[in-house]
Specification:
The protein is of the alpha+beta class and 139 residues long. The chain has helices spanning 15-22, 26-39, 85-92, 98-106, 123-138, and strands spanning 44-49, 56-61, 66-73, 76-83, 109-110, 113-120. It has one domain (15-138). It has a six-stranded antiparallel sheet with strand order 1-2-3-4-6-5.
Length: 139
């Protein structure tokens, strides 16, 4: 089974496909995507499939940096970041919920930063990701 609701054997999902899979979370996807696209414009927003096991995901990227990755799942979606240590320190000082900070602390460390992934199911989750995106891009 793939991480994404859309496996690597298919074409990139259409807006209709995405709305069908996400259900009520579709509005949250649009809200987060549009906020990040506006806050860090100009932004490239592109679907990609890195492997069959990961499936399709949406990458939001400035000319030089990836801001955020979104992965559609059934009824919710995942938001992923690579956070450098400066961004991790700033996140700890930003008043984010303990659950967000624990996810950051527990994240695997890579050369490009800590790989963090969050399930997005509520408007509060979206607000936390908007804050985290701003912290990442400022650091």
């Amino acid at each position: 089974m793939t991480l994404s609701a859309f496996d690597g054997n298919s074409n990139a999902p259409t807006d209709k496909d995405l709305a069908e899979v996400l259900g009520k979370s579709h509005a949250l996807w649009i809200e987060l995507r549009d906020h990040v696209a506006s806050a860090f414009a100009p932004l490239n927003v592109e679907w990609g499939c890195s492997s069959k096991s990961a499936g399709w995901g949406l990458r939001l990227k400035t000319e030089k940096r990836a801001v955020l990755y979104l992965c559609p799942c059934r009824g919710y979606f995942l938001a992923s970041f690579a956070l450098g240590e400066k961004a991790v320190r700033a996140a700890k000082e930003a008043g984010l919920p303990e659950s967000v900070l624990k996810t950051i602390d527990d994240a695997p460390r890579y050369a490009e930063g800590r790989g963090v992934r969050f399930e997005i199911r509520t408007r509060g989750d979206v607000r936390n990701m908007e804050k985290l995106a701003a912290i990442k891009m400022a650091n």
